[in-house]
Amino acid sequence: MTVEKLEMKLRQEVENVAGQVFKLESLGGHTGSVDLVIVLRGGHVGFVRLREPDERLNLKSGSSIYKLRERGCTACAVSREDEVQRVIMYILSDAGADPCWQMFQMQEKRKKEEQL
Hints:
Blueprint: H1 3-16, E1 20-23, E2 36-40, E3 44-50, H2 59-70, E4 74-78, H3 84-92, H4 99-115
Parallel strand pairs: 3-4
Antiparallel strand pairs: 1-2, 2-3
């Protein structure tokens, strides 16, 4: 499945649950950033990076997803049609807003700073 077809499938599934998909235009010099912002009912927002089927996540894409997650956002990459429903469930789970996750992230950040 091409990235375009994957995006269409994701848009269709999000619209089926009364959500909206916004496509982000390329930000000058920011290759590897997320492609879509998905907004679901109840204020659930997620950032999604689309990839070719079974394409490995490159360093820049992984870094942008990591930075969003570090700030408490729900962010992920999708490359296959069978991942579409999981992406929607992940966004609905508010994984990035979990206080335990945020505390863990802060502790990990402190550990890294102490090692330097």
